Structures are given as C-alpha cells and as structure tokens.
C-alpha cells in the first residue's frame, strides 16, 4: 500500500485554495493535515466550502513545526515566500513553493545556499509549464533537432484585466517570470542580456506610473533572440503563445482545442479567459510528480531553487531596464552548481 504523505499548506488564497482542492480530491495518497492563512478565518472558510477538515494555524511557524506535517506547500503572497521557504528548509522539510521563489536574486541565493546544507534537493518551485504536455512536446522537438538550431522565439503572455495595484513590477515578477523560466528550460541556454520596451499605454490603465503592455527582449549566450509580449489588461481573454524558429523549421505551441461553432454566417472558436483552466492538467501532473518523489523520501526533480534564482536574476535586470528607460542590461549568470546538475 502506498504511503500517505501529510501536507501543510500556507496561504489559502486563489491558488492556495485550488491546490488544496487538488491535493485532497485529485492527487492520490495525500492528507492535507494543516492549513494557514494570515487573514483570520479565511482558511477555515475554504475548508468548510470544500467539506474538509484540517488544523487551522494562525502562525505559519506552528504549521511548519507540527510533527505531523511532512511537506510544506507555500502559496502565500510573494513577499512571504522567502521567509516561509527558509523556515521549512531549516526545519528539514520538503517544500513546494509557488513562483516566484523570492522577490529578488539575493533572497533566492540564500535559499540555494540553505538547501545545499542538506546535501540533497528539498525544494521545488511551481513553474508548472515544465509539466504542461504541449511544452514537454515542444522541448522534445527542440532537443531532438527537428527544427535545427534555434535562432529566435516569439512569445505572448496576455491576461485579462488586472486590478489597479497590479503594477509594472508584478507584470515582470508574476507574469513574464513564466516565459523567463520556460524559455531558459526549453532552449537550455543562459541569458546574456535583457531589455524592456514600453509600447503605447492601454487606456485601461488610469495610473500613469503603471506601464502596460510591455515587451521583454532577451538574448541568450549563444545568440538566440527572444521576444515576449506581456499584456496583463488584455480585454479579449487569456492568450499564451510560443513559437521557436530554427534553421530548418518552426515549432509552434498549439492553442487550447475548442469546439468550433458555425452560426450566423460565422465560424468561431472560444478563447479561454482563465489561466487556471489553461494549465489545469499541468498543475495536476506537477503535483503528482512532486508527491511521488517526496513520499518516498526522494528529492523532487521539477524546477529547482537554481531555476528560481536564474529567473530572479533575469527579472531583477528587467526591472532595472524599466527604471533606466529601456536600457539593455547585461547578465552574468554563473554556471549551475553541480548540486543542481545531478
């Protein structure tokens, strides 16, 4: 009989409540034994809504130090990721942390150094696109050489209207961070530089200090050019694109299949509006893999703290490019430690 893994979830917001539902109703052999949220009563309300029972802690330290909690899942606000992850690692517990790993590269490096004290990987970062079947297929096509050497990539990350407080910084560290991570993984090539262009402002932003959309342009060390359009107040839906152009052909990420409708002299398909629905299968596969490893006291094999560090270094440089009026920022990412190459 498979062992039941006891999990504690910190942060029961939109993604946290979704993962709570996933871990209790979709992923086998998991017992969510404890939850925690900084807002009093919020976690218990979600437990009641989902018909679940678990210990409800007001202080995340108590959850981490609970001897019944074997694995910590961090879905708290970005600002809290660093402290929660460090506390989980110091307690010697496996940890899954939603992206970003931390708010900047220095904090991520602290996590990298703390994890290495254990002599093995203890942490996985929630870059779920590594598990999305279409991205896995795309990587296979690139790695197998079917399109020849990659030359450039054209990406899009459009989301529907975000609240006013979703500023230019969050467009990078919460939205563009996905492309920053996944393109590094797909191309297996470190970044050489990055530049952010600020196109004409959408009228759906009233605050002049917020810039939306943005265009992030990166160059890898081998010379591959990557363009990422980031538009978090797109009005028509949630739209993800990734085309990789090689010497012999183009690999194009497919759109999500939808039933085509022929009606009123029109032929149409719907566009998703929910990012959660777009990557639901990826989240499921991601957690199945993570739990399968840690339940047997094995290190997780998904996106690592080093992946989180690379993403943070690149995001920091993107933010600096914005601050300096679009100036190109050089990157000097060190070689991955052997610890993360095994």
Automatic annotation (TrEMBL):
Pathway listed: Polyol metabolism; myo-inositol degradation into acetyl-CoA; acetyl-CoA from myo-inositol: step 1/7
Coiled-coil annotated spans: none
Domain spans labelled Gfo/Idh/MocA-like oxidoreductase C-terminal: 139-326
Pfam families: GFO_IDH_MocA (PF01408), GFO_IDH_MocA_C (PF02894)
Keyword field: NAD, Oxidoreductase
Family, as annotated: Belongs to the Gfo/Idh/MocA family.
Name of this chain's protein: Inositol 2-dehydrogenase/D-chiro-inositol 3-dehydrogenase
Function: Involved in the oxidation of myo-inositol (MI) and D-chiro-inositol (DCI) to 2-keto-myo-inositol (2KMI or 2-inosose) and 1-keto-D-chiro-inositol (1KDCI), respectively.
Subunit structure: Homotetramer.
UniProt catalytic activity: myo-inositol + NAD(+) = scyllo-inosose + NADH + H(+); 1D-chiro-inositol + NAD(+) = scyllo-inosine + NADH + H(+)
GO-annotated biological processes: inositol catabolic process
GO molecular function: inositol 2-dehydrogenase (NAD+) activity; nucleotide binding
Enzyme Commission number(s): 1.1.1.18, 1.1.1.369
HAMAP family: IolG (MF_01671)
Signal sequence annotation: none
Stored InterPro entries: Gfo-Idh-MocA_inositol_DH (IPR050424), Gfo/Idh/MocA-like_OxRdtase_C (IPR004104), Gfo/Idh/MocA-like_OxRdtase_N (IPR000683), MI/DCI_dehydrogenase (IPR023794), NAD(P)-bd_dom_sf (IPR036291)
Gene3D superfamilies (alphabetical): Dihydrodipicolinate Reductase, domain 2, NAD(P)-binding Rossmann-like Domain
Domain annotation Gfo/Idh/MocA-like oxidoreductase N-terminal: ranges: 6-127
Keyword NAD (UniProt): yes
Keyword Repeat: no
Name of the top EC class for this enzyme: oxidoreductase
